[in-house]
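Check out a protein:
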Amino acid sequence: MKRFFLSLFIIFWFNAQAQENLATPDLPNIVLIFMDDMGYGDLGVYGGYPQQTSHLNQLAATGMRFTNFYAAQAVCSASRAALLTGCYPNRLSISGALMPWSTVALNPTEETLASLVKKKGYKTGMIGKWHLGAKAPYLPTSYGFDSYFGLPYSNDMWPVGYDGKPVTDTADRKFKYPPLYLLEGNEPVKLIQTLEDQAQLTGMYTERAVEFIDRNKKNPFFLYLAHSMPHVPIAVSENYKNKSGAGLFGDLLLEIDDSVGEVMRALKKNGLTETTLVIFTSDNGPWLTFGNHAGSSGGLREGKGSAWEGGVRVPCIMSFPGVIPAGTVSNNLATTMDIFPTLAALTGTDLPKQKIDGINILPLLQQVANANPRDHFVYYYDANSLKAIRQGKWKLVFPHLSQTYLDTSRGNDGFPGIYKSAQVPFALYDLSTDPGETFDLAFQHPAVVEALTTIANEYRKTLGDDLTKQPGTEKRPAAKIN
């Protein structure tokens, strides 16, 4: 009898141990933290000053920091569609920033990161900004996420002025926005109507992220934490007001950094650090027109809303102990679209039958000798305009009209400045020596110009190009909202 009970005890003990953490390096937990309008130069580890980002600096010290990492486009919805599907957004007929009343959404037939890993039994959750469809059935739970808590679109899409007061003037463009609600699943649970309400968002998202990790510690999980800030309006909770010594924007980065710290502590507390891939990046560069409420492009040209480097080159840190060597820096070309096929490779999941544009960068993460998975990147913007192409150190810019922050007035304390537009000429830049895109070298390197133009012409055929009046043969439709 004693042997019988001893045998039962051993069986129960081993079962308990097996259930302690089902994630492994071959089937890891995944935490994807996606910022809104964070600039290349905002973090301390990217030269940011005087911001304090000790937790993110530590994340970089335990993993890999990318110096040539790109969002697919420098605007909200397009960038998020690319992240979740591994596709250039124009392939999916998604462009710009969708309005609450937009008649299109990400097509639910598209595979997303969440639906991809669910094939392997992952628990999936999203927290934060969605912005790929404003109402059911075009909210996250229709795209592979088991749970959702957050805002359906940008936090400035509300009937509140830049001064934080409700808009009553019917001529004000903000008057037409509907009330802004936090959603739980598909249901509204809290009205966001003041800057103080905005100040609670980062903290609420962080609490929900920690709860998700605690709740799913015994299963492989995918957590998509998409912060609403530093997209304006920016605000911080009481504990962070005037704490950074670097103004409200510095206070916000301090709170965001602490949010990352809380997530990392939750992983450590649950014994998940060694079996979790953590990715931190941004949807596009800083919205510079907002002056002291915007971040820094770190010396890159321009910012959000353009095809210049400051618009689409973003900070990216990835940490996965035992897989990604600690303290490494990658200067190779990589994009948010590459996360999709990389997670597929990491989890042994088949890619979608429909074409994607992402490239598996797992060899780059593992620092395989001479690995350079991504050959080139094309810079689309507006509805479907091919504005530039990069291969290696070379960036070829095609003539186009662009938003510019140069020679304009910047805003202050939450108010925007004045936009201008400028004609951009044909030019070739060497980004290795000229990241500010200042010196045109097209005349000196005709062979480079010809090679890049040839690649660009192939994209014009398949994805189209409004600048050259080509419709494209491989575009897929967005969902139509009635």
